[in-house]
UniProtKB/TrEMBL annotation:
It holds the Pfam family OsmC. Gene3D superfamilies: 3.30.300.20. It comes from the Bacteria. This is OsmC family peroxiredoxin.
């Protein structure tokens, strides 16, 4: 199993260690944070958009189409009901060049098959385990 480590920094700020990379997450000022990085929710949506971009770029490259300048915009809506969750994500793909109808269909199909999208559609089972309790001084 691959692992990602999240370490508390201060207040609502955390450092997420992914291989040799550090991603800082926090809450915005309006939610009591110091806004030193995106929120975990924003990273969730960003992960979907980044995965979609990866699959889109691969499709364009495989078909000899230009990929430089490819953009994916992800808009998202929160559910008004509980539990709190993202209820809708709208991915807008902006290829760097005009595509034929067949190429558009292929690009959309490629983005639809991205790994993060598949992981949301067929959600993973999530286990929560307490590793150990802090020791009293």
């Amino acid at each position: 199993m691959r692992e990602i480590l999240v370490v508390h920094r201060e207040n609502d700020a955390f450092a997420v260690l992914v291989r040799d990379h550090v991603i800082h997450v926090d809450q915005p000022y309006s939610a009591g944070g110091m806004d030193v990085g995106p929120t975990p929710l924003e990273l969730f949506v960003a992960s979907l958009a980044a995965s979609a971009a990866h699959y889109a770029r691969r499709y364009l490259s495989r078909h000899g189409l230009p990929a430089t300048g490819l953009e994916i915009t992800a808009g998202y809506t929160m559910s008004p009901t509980v539990p709190t969750r993202v209820s809708h994500v709208d991915l807008r793909v902006r290829p760097p060049a005009r595509l034929s109808a067949v190429e558009v269909d292929g690009l959309v199909a490629a983005v639809d098959r991205c790994t993060v999208h598949n992981s949301i559609i067929d959600a993973p089972r999530i286990g929560v385990h307490l590793a150990s309790e802090a020791r009293a001084a």
